[in-house]
Amino acid sequence: MTLGIEIENLTVRYPGVTAIDDLTLKLEGGKIYGLLGRNGSGKTTLLSLIAAFRRVTEGAILVDGEAPFENERLTQQICLVRESGDIVVDGDSVKGILRRSRRFRPHWDDEFAHRLLDLFQLPLNRGVAKLSRGQKSALGITVGLASRAPLTMLDEAYLGMDAPSRYAFYDVLLEDYIENPRTIILSTHLIEEVARLFEEVVIIDRGRLVAHDDTESLRMRGAAVVGPAAAVDDFTTGMTVLGEQRLGGTKSVTVYGEIDPDARAVAADWGLELSPVALQDLFVHLTKGDRA
Amino acid sequence: MSALTYRRSRASFLDLSAGFSQAVGWFIVTVAVIFLVIGVIIDLATGGTSESIWENSAYATRYFPLSMGIMITAAYLPVAVASGVTRRSFGWAGAGVVIALSGLMALFEAGGYLIEYGLYRAVGETPEFTTPHLFDQGYQFWLIVPEVWIVVAANVAAGWLIGSAYYKWGWFGPTLALPLLLLPLLAVEAIMAVGWAGAALDAMNVEHLPTAAAVPAALAVLTLTLAGIHSFVRTIDLRPQKA
Amino acid sequence: MFDDRSPIYHQIAEAIKNDILSGALGADEQVMSTNQYAAYYRINPATAAKGFQQLVDEGVLYKRRGIGMFVSPDARDMLLSQRRERFFADVVEPMIAEARVIGIPLDDVVARIQTLKGRESA
């Protein structure tokens, strides 16, 4: 079972800042989504609203066709792990967290949870307060995955985890998703490692939707045009330019948008090189902007 | 209440109980040791007064549960909501904790009075009470249990209300509004003629309500308080996570 | 395994085609499932499925309901003829263009090819 999400004209204002700004977005169930945005772009706020951690005040969020706030049928099927997780009370041990999740999560898989603890080398009897940053993240991931919630959201889940643990997480996430298909949203600002796990990518910046597309299409939509400065300038006139760099007489301009075969022919004719842009670079360009 | 709400409330209640059980257990042991064992023995050994020592434990069995009440929302609302429990179900669980914790305290208190009564009687004394109560003998557990239950419940509820207000609004507003937040507790104490409010009324020579009227009236105030907290809790957004 | 230069599903299709051309995958041999493939290469299963679907559309693979995907009997011949057709456009013409840019006379290129050919037949 999977849950789809519809967001319409969602706005969230905090004192002095608009965290989510008129966001409209539709996510089908059963896919792995990457939610990309810089720190403070509104990722956590958005996920907190979907998970009914906060009440929607302007606009609407529907999960499986219903508003999730105070909707028990939905909330028990939605699991959001914010960084290290909100499910820890001072004094809790790793074991206590598992006991709690077993109690609250209808699809909880205890065996899988223990396998994850082994994988991340988390001691069962250790107090959560004594865990390192990376171990807390691993505990959050363990709870997030073993809950098998039809809508699972992990917000910057890997903070403090070393590379081997992160890759172990990606492997186990994919393996478990294949065995138990569900809607998964991973929010991140470190894109390179995880981009290939995403079926679709949502990029938000300052609370606004910047892009939502399947990962491959999005990746192919960016292009770097490299060649003699004058020719590059001519070629890119009228295109959405995300960034440019110059080295002597050579210029490289990153553009965003479809480049049709005719335009490609022209580029070849003019001696310009067109190359795809890594998702990470595209993300940086799309969310670059002055901020305090 | 739907079957689902019941199931989720029950799970949340058990989670809260599991979290509180250790502290409550230690509290009970500590209070029993201090007031019963040490207090009574010293009193008997020194051939002291016939005044009840156990009576003084009442302050502990009110204020400790009040402090637990403060933790209900502050520590466990985020846990419940992040575990997919609605505030509605959490509210029922919190009300359950208020009733269960105060019930436990009532049994504990009644047991203490009974033991103390037995010990005093063994040396030919009868414990006497210096503060107002519904009961006047240590063996009257049928009066002790309702009195302590209602009064402690009002204390836990007050703690829950205060803790919820601090969680929602931060420290400034609720600190200013503290007297307001304590109003339901004072009302219950006044109606039952116990605690600070009871003592104040005594000092002013105000007539006590008869037990048959005081108990239902106090229960009504308590029910209203819990209902109020329940609807208040349902409006609380989780705070952003600490960095 | 994959790079950023083209869509990953395209690279998956190319990799399987190369396996068929090299003989690593024979006619009517079963290929990995999309899920196995996705888990192995750590990519989204939908992306892997897209690559496989492309191969089915091109007739390189065929599906057997409930069992999996297999290499078409004529896949290798088909791919060979495609590659042969593309050979001049993809390999020879860019080579000549490059030779021109860096100033190698075409006669030298031809001579070199003759030498290699002679060595091979010897």
From TrEMBL, chain A:
Keywords: ATP-binding, Nucleotide-binding. One of its GO terms (molecular function) is ATP binding. Residues 5-231 form the ABC transporter domain. It comes from the Bacteria. Gene3D superfamilies: P-loop containing nucleotide triphosphate hydrolases. InterPro entries: AAA+_ATPase (IPR003593), ABC_transporter-like_ATP-bd (IPR003439), P-loop_NTPase (IPR027417). Pfam families: ABC_tran (PF00005). This is ABC transporter ATP-binding protein. It comes from Jiangella rhizosphaerae.
From TrEMBL, chain B:
The chain crosses the membrane at residues 20-42, 62-85, 92-115, 139-163, 175-199, 211-233. The keyword Transmembrane applies. Keywords: Membrane, Transmembrane, Transmembrane helix. It comes from the Bacteria. The keyword Transmembrane helix applies. This is Uncharacterized protein. It comes from Jiangella rhizosphaerae.
UniProtKB/TrEMBL annotation, chain C:
It comes from the Bacteria. Coiled coil: none annotated. Keywords: DNA-binding, Transcription, Transcription regulation. Residues 6-74 form the HTH gntR-type domain. InterPro entries: Tscrpt_reg_HTH_GntR, WH-like_DNA-bd_sf, WH_DNA-bd_sf. GO terms for molecular function: DNA binding; DNA-binding transcription factor activity. This is GntR family transcriptional regulator.
